[in-house]
Amino acid sequence: MKLINKESVGRRMPVRILINTIFKGLFFLATLFGLFVLAILLYRIFTQGIGYLNIDFLQNFASRRPEEAGVKAALIGSIWLMATVAPISLLLGVGTAIYMEEYAVKNRFTNFIQVNISNLAGVPSIVFGLLGLTIFVRALALGSSVLAAGLTMSLLVLPVIIVASQEAVRAVPKELREASYGMGATKWQTIIKVVLPAAIPGILTGGILALSRAIGETAPLIVVGIPVFIAFLPRTVFDTFSVLPMQIYNWTSRPQEEFQSVAAAGIIVLLVLLIFMNSIAVLIRNKFQKRY
Amino acid sequence: MTAIQSITEKIKKDSKLMNKPIAEQKEHVYETSDLNLWYGENHALININLDITENEVTAIIGPSGCGKSTYIKTLNRMIELVPGVKTSGEIRYRGRNILDKSYKAEDLRTRVGMVFQKPNPFPKSIFENVAYGPKIHGIKNKKLLDEIVEKSLRGAAIWDEVKDRLNQNAYGLSGGQQQRLCIARCLAIEPDVILMDEPTSALDPISTLKVEELVQELKKEFSIIIVTHNMQQAARISDKTAFFLNGEVIEYKDTNTIFSNPTDKRTEDYITGRFG
């Protein structure tokens, strides 16, 4: 005797298939929603800002007159900031991830550190700004410099980089490590020749996400005391500077209508910079994926 | 009893083919005395006493979870990668106790190579895979590396298949080729002993046969210890066989003897397929 009644299974069939179709549609709508909003945003920004976007806009410093205003100081400042944040946060982040995954013994203490790293990723950015102000700007007397801002931003993105790198390192198959150890390789040789090359695509994905966040942040920089109106470029990491999001924020808060369009042009520059950074990461990633 | 008879006949046939060297005094590469091993509270190896002779193939058989893999991983101290492992007793490799902390695991593993259950080539070119060992040991001379790679690939009977594509990714090889590549990689460090942890369990029968033939070839130069849960394989390729059960060595004898005339009832039950 059969336990399953084929007839009632058959009766339920159309309902199950209908539910399946409904959910497929719902998920598609969810995807569409994000794309739709993004498209509207981009359309508005481009139609508004494109008129102000020319070579002068890139070459001029900020100005009180909208037709003369430019992003030179902010653009170069953002590049300086990235050039500081990227090496500091990647070295510290990847180093921490390797220690946690490859060297640290799993015990209550390392568990505690792990939980805290994950929690730090959720701390509001303004809190990191206060930390930067206390430690880097005041205690270490770095002032509102590229270095102080860079260190603050590095702290902000560090948890994200650590967690992403840990995931990437953990995803390297244990068999590859065994093969390396089995031939008498030391832990360091195994890490540098087997683990890191295999983990680099994952590390870069996390790193770029983190840096993209850093390039768009304003809150911690306001606390650290980065000026918005500046008419010179930093020469060293100890000079003060400004960045694109601060400049954009400043423009949007101006009363004149024209500055809204200038801000839109600034946003376009910021987006292009972001796309440029992402492409570099994709290139590096592809290079490693081809070889490995 | 027919199962035993058929295995015995197979052994007789095989041993004729093997043209055994005239009995000579061979040294022990490994001498294990009173080895005990615990994973936390779990007593995984119990009072193991086992001597392994050089230039022979020693097979370790037994059901899953009997400790055979644990034992072979102790021989090159790979077992240390598992957290919470404790050992007592001695394993002397060429007279020196390898469980002594002053014996560096890295040093031991340059003498004792290992081939794993699943083929595990690096995601690098075929050449780089084989050159990996010599390179980490500090050999930089390109010509010497070329020579080592060719010799190792020939030694693992895979040279003819890959000589034209040494710079291609090793992942493009078939499973059986990958495993022979891993054997070549192991040969490249010129080890004294080769440990094989179920090297054919992930391979098809033809690739398995190739690896088995290779093992026969390799034992002229190396001492080989092979874990297998394929009893026919142990009977075909090994000189001595150890039967493990629940962390203990039940029987350790010449392969011919253990398969034709096991002393212990449990060994007999296992090799005739009554359990495990």
From TrEMBL, chain A:
PROSITE patterns xref list: ABC_TM1 (PS50928)
Pfam families: BPD_transp_1 (PF00528)
GO-annotated molecular function: phosphate transmembrane transporter activity
InterPro entries reported for this sequence: MetI-like, MetI-like_sf, Phosphate_PstA
Keyword Protein biosynthesis included in the entry's annotation: no
One GO cellular component, as annotated: plasma membrane
Residue ranges annotated for the ABC transmembrane type-1 domain, each copy included: 75-280
CDD domains, A to Z: TM_PBP2
UniProt record, GO biological process: phosphate ion transmembrane transport
NCBIfam families, per database record: 3a0107s02c
Family from the record: Belongs to the binding-protein-dependent transport system permease family. CysTW subfamily.
Protein name: Phosphate transport system permease protein PstA
Species of provenance: Peribacillus cavernae
Automatic annotation (TrEMBL), chain B:
UniProt keyword annotations, A-Z: ATP-binding, Cell membrane, Hydrolase, Membrane, Nucleotide-binding, Phosphate transport, Translocase, Transport
Principal location class: membrane
Pfam families found in the cross-reference section: ABC_tran (PF00005)
UniProt xrefs under CDD domains: ABC_PstB_phosphate_transporter
UniProt cross-references to InterPro entries, sorted A to Z: AAA+_ATPase, ABC_transporter-like_ATP-bd, ABC_transporter-like_CS, P-loop_NTPase, PstB-like
Protein EC: 3.6.3.27
Location within or outside the cell: Cell inner membrane
Gene Ontology MF term list: ATP binding; ATP hydrolysis activity; phosphate transmembrane transporter activity
Domain ABC transporter: 30-271
Coiled-coil region: none
Signal peptide span: none
Membrane topology: Peripheral membrane protein
Any one biological process term the GO annotation gives: phosphate ion transmembrane transport
Chain segments annotated as transmembrane: none
One cellular component term from this protein's GO annotations in UniProt: plasma membrane
Entry function: Part of the ABC transporter complex PstSACB involved in phosphate import. Responsible for energy coupling to the transport system.
UniProt protein name: Phosphate ABC transporter ATP-binding protein
Biological source species: Peribacillus cavernae
